[in-house]
Specification:
Length: 307
Amino acid sequence: MHVFPLPNLPEKSSNYVLRRMPLTQLIGFALISKRTKDQAERLNVKMKSVDVWIDEAIKIFIWADSDERIPSVFVKFLVSQAPNDPGKREFTLRTREGKTWPKFGARQFLDHALEVCNEVCIIRITLLCDKIDCDGNKICDMFDGLTIESLSVCFEHLQLVNPFFQQMLTKFSRQSKMVSWMGNPFPHDDSHRIQIILCQFIHSVHLPAKLFSNVRVLLDGLLIADAVLLWNMDKMCLKDVNIFLKHWIHGSNTKLESASLRLDAQVMEMRMFSKCYSKMWNTRWHLRSGNLCILGQMDQKNTLEAK
């Protein structure tokens, strides 16, 4: 990210130059002064999406065009101990070119970039591992208040209790429209905390396999999920699918529009779709059994169409 003064040009000419700057240079130009920041904001530059990856460092990718294969801006915030306070952590910004900016926080940079690019963009947060040497509260505060389009959580030790990921999942799920996670950071005998996450409204929820301790807890979790789109990768028996569908059509979740369920490896019998499901018009369901995948939808005549 380069910071440099623009020659004293007429506004029309300077705008011409600024519009042809790479986004990373424009963000740097806006850091010079309030005047340059206002000038950059008036350009109404579009920003398509922002990806935040949290692993051993905090990485921010900004995409000016969704068709690009390489992000327009990439910065990394390295975590290190403060020289005078070993218990304190400092973040150092490092650009793609290898330049460093000390004492410039991730949220400070993100807010600055979002202000320069007035276009509402998609923010995605991905937690990849549990190696970051930083207090969880500091990470939570860093992205507090942001509207997160999607939150993805994936850690290496899938079966170990992980307080850091418990905190991240609980906190960021409240700000997210879509949540998916891999592995269970909670104790297997403590399904209550997972159900607390599910019963808050999240537009789309993707549940991994082996998240719940037993099938009864799994079914309860699906029934209380307050979502519009719901994916479940754990295997379910026909009886539990029947129970779920019956509760669904009787109004257990009036928001739910689409559900993807996975059956265990057995022959799927269409008798599970009895007449009581005739109320499910304009509703989609998606069922898997081994290599068999069936998509179905009720038409306006209340008849079942298998696809």
